[in-house]
């Protein structure tokens, strides 16, 4: 015989073993007594069992479980409550609600993600993913660039596998100088026989493949050009971002350094050679120093391929920046008469066919930290410059801009005039070269958008 005890003081049930033989009668009595022991008492108070464990039972569910009269086909199964596991709740953060998108947004540039693998040159093998770069509008309004109509114009872009936007923008501006490129091309029989003229050779290969749609072929040409420049300038051998003005100056310096050698090669071939950089971009500046006490001074002439202009605080024009560069300044100089103050003045001796202006948007703070200057500049479409040999009128044909808020990061883009139209054409067709993405724009729009980001300006002289 065994005994079953209820947990309530008022209900204690004794069941004999012989009575359990009759299943329906005995289990019914057990069920009734057990239910009364595990539910609310007659006085409306919760039993001690429920007070201790806090899990009241359901009368109908316990009755069917004890009596075995559960119809599994008719009654749906109850869902088991999942146990609380505190370790799964740790380190979980409630996701922030998504911010609503603004009503007017510029759509991203039509540039698909591409994975390229590049080998060659002196740099290491690298593999990068090209992500679309959406150019940020600087003006108060948001205008979407018009897509190119001619299918070949879409092939004018240059791929960017590893932070070479500074080189791509420099190349696009050089390719916009049509007369400069023709001057290099017509003298190919001379420099093609010189192994040191790899910069010219690579530049002409890129020019011939400008309309090519083969991105892999263009990448190989870009790596060759970069390696040719890095042969004499090792700072451009890595894959880091560089300054486009320094790269541009290095390219022109390498071309000029071959002048004497190529002249001798041309003479041995019965030909003549003329340096394209000197024919199109080289000019001379006269520096005059005068002592304030005795009036004695000195004059010297220096060669330039680019002028670096200081920005004007607040707002300024290109004409004002040129005037500040040429105006008389005071400098510390010890003269033979004992005076330490002198006047210094600069002027143009002659004028180039292409005048390149570099705007000093990066400067060092008193704590020797490089900082970008965002002061706006009114870009002049036409520019009049005077020299000792006379004046000349220039027209803006290309720009290089630095997009970004800091000197340590950013992106270079180039804007250039369409070579299929003349400078006097009223259509004013320009192109924006954002690496592999080329969009159609106008010169008026470029001058409006690049006021705070223009870095290099290319002016072509009217003959």
Question: How would you describe this protein?
Answer:
With 463 residues, this protein is α+β, with helices and mostly antiparallel strands. The protein has two domains: 68 residues, no CATH class; 348 residues, Cathepsin B, Chain A (Alpha-Beta Complex). Helix content is 27%, strand content 22%. The protein starts with 22 loop residues before the first helix and ends with a strand. The N terminus is likely disordered.
CATH-defined fold name of the largest domain? Cathepsin B, Chain A
CATH class of the largest domain: Alpha Beta
Report, as a whole number of angstroms, the end-to-end distance: 125 Å
User: What's the oligomerization state?
Assistant: single chain
The beta-strand count equals 18
Question: Low-confidence parts lasting 5 or more residues at pLDDT below 50?
Answer: 1-39, 59-75, 85-149
Determine the strand fraction and express it as a percent band: 15-25%
The amount of helix comes to 25-40%
Largest sheet: number of strands, sense, barrel closure: 8 strands, mixed
**Number of structural units classed as domains:** 2
**Structural class of the helices, strands and pairings?**
alpha+beta
Query: Over all CA atoms, what is the radius of gyration?
Result: 41 Å
Shape: globular
């Amino acid at each position: 015989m065994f005994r079953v005890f209820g947990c309530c003081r008022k209900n204690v049930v004794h069941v004999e073993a012989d009575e359990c033989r009759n299943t329906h009668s005995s289990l019914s009595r057990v069920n009734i007594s057990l239910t009364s022991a595990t539910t609310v008492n007659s006085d409306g108070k919760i039993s001690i069992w429920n007070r201790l464990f806090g899990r009241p039972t359901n009368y109908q569910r316990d009755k069917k479980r004890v009596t075995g009269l559960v119809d599994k086909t008719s009654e749906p199964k109850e869902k088991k409550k999942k146990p609380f596991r505190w370790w799964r709740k740790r380190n979980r953060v409630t996701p922030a609600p998504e911010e609503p998108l603004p009503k007017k947004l510029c759509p991203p540039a039509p540039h698909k993600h591409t994975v390229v693998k590049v080998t060659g040159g002196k740099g290491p093998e690298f593999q990068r993913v090209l992500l679309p770069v959406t150019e940020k509008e600087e003006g108060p309004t948001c205008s979407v660039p018009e897509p190119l109509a001619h299918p070949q114009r879409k092939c004018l872009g240059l791929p960017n596998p590893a932070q070479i936007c500074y080189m791509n923008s420099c190349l696009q501006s050089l390719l916009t100088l049509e007369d400069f490129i023709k001057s290099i091309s017509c003298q190919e029989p001379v420099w093609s026989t010189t192994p040191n003229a790899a910069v010219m050779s690579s530049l002409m290969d890129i020019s011939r493949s400008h309309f090519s749609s083969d991105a892999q072929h263009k990448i190989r040409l870009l790596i060759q050009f970069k390696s040719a420049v890095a042969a004499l300038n090792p700072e451009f051998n890595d894959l880091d971002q560089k300054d486009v003005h320094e790269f541009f100056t290095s390219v022109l310096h390498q071309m000029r350094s071959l002048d004497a050698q190529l002249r001798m090669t041309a003479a041995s071939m019965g030909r003549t050679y003329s340096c394209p950089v000197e024919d199109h971009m080289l000019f001379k500046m006269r520096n005059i120093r005068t002592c304030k006490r005795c009036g004695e001074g000195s004059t010297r002439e220096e060669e330039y391929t680019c002028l670096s202009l200081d920005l004007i605080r607040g707002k300024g024009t290109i004409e004002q920046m040129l005037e500040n560069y040429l105006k008389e300044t005071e400098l510390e100089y010890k003269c033979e008469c004992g005076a330490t103050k002198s006047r210094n003045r600069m002027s143009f001796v002659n004028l180039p066919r292409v005048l390149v202006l570099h705007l000093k948007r990066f400067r060092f703070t008193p704590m020797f930290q490089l900082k970008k200057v965002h002061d706006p500049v009114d870009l002049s479409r036409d520019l009049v410059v005077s020299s000792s040999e006379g004046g000349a009128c220039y027209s803006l044909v290309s720009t290089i801009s630095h997009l970004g808020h800091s000197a340590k990061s950013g992106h270079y883009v180039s804007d250039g005039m369409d070579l299929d139209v003349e400078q006097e054409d009223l259509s004013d067709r320009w192109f924006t070269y954002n690496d592999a993405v080329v969009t159609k724009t106008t010169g008026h729009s470029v001058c409006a958008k690049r006021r705070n980001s223009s870095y290099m300006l290319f002016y072509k002289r009217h003959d």
